[in-house]
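Entry 12.
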Amino acid sequence: MNLAVPKEVHPGEVRVALIPEHVAKLVKAGADVAIESGLGQMLRIADEKYTEAGASVVADHNQLIQNADVVLRIRKPLPEEVEQMKPGCIYISLLDPFNERELIDMFVTKNISAISMEMIPRITRAQKMDVLSSQANLAGYVAVILAAERLDKILPMMMTPAGTISPARVFIIGVGVAGLQAIATAKRLGARVEAFDTRPVVEEQVKSLGARFVKIDLGETGQTKDGYAKALTEEQLQKQREGMAKVCALSDIVITTAQLFGRKAPVIVTEDMVRGMSKGSVIVDLAAERGGNVEGTVKNEKTFVDGVTIIGYIDHPSRVPVHASQLYTKNITTFLLNMAKEGELTLNMEDEIVSATLITEGGEIKHAGLRELIEKESS
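Predicted 3D structure (tokens):
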């Protein structure tokens, strides 16, 4: 198995898909690992560290991709890179397959086996492979740090001879992995934290972190079999906005995390709600890459609405690239070792992890959900 790790080409992406520690594990399992020269430069990892772990270093980006049996990345490839891959090559990264139809078509045409790490199923056996959870965890932490840096107040209560400073109020919308980490981080910094989620089942998790769970009667809600929140009706969204408006108005920081996989993020904080917040307040929209949960969010920018700062950055894990790379590498190495048989990768469709993540193979779309969506749209 000739496994290649080229540099990232996505603007602003400084994470790496493989660090030396895990190169050694893959080499021990029988893989021939090649990395592009300078791969770990942004993380202060010299090429020599990779060679010491058993990898070879290739200076020619195109040659690296052309010779690879397996290509590992954080982000999706450029079209010209797909053209250079040999038929039967396996490409593994975060691919966003439901929103990248042209890229998926290219994989089919070129007979590339494309694996999307977002699709790791939420089962016990796959926990160590769960890229979305590992990176969302860091995103929740970074969101609080970004907001605290921008806010013109401190977060903790302080009792001083000059008077008592009240704690800042932080409101977390969406209590998934990112939301829970945001709650924990804000509490550690001394803020008064409130949180809301459409899934009543997470109330105990919120309380266990010392935050108050905001209850809004939305009628029937719930979660998918994978633990994600189900999409709300427009009527439910309106009730949710009305219920949250009062909490937002009292909050110094609002962090939104609501995302629906493969679909545009729901708008849950309207412009009127933003304008109802105090001047100087800060909103961090973790769903900015999917269109945003907040009216006024601009992807990858910081904007201002009536004195309220809205942060729409999409690179939160990349802002802590050392730990983000460590976690991603652990995820992908565990995933690879799960498929490895005598130094080769076996795409066994009877393995539910493989069947959930394999998007294309043999010149056709293999992922059942994506195939059904395409058939539905074309009928």
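Annotation: The mean pLDDT is 93. The chain has 13 helices and 19 strands.
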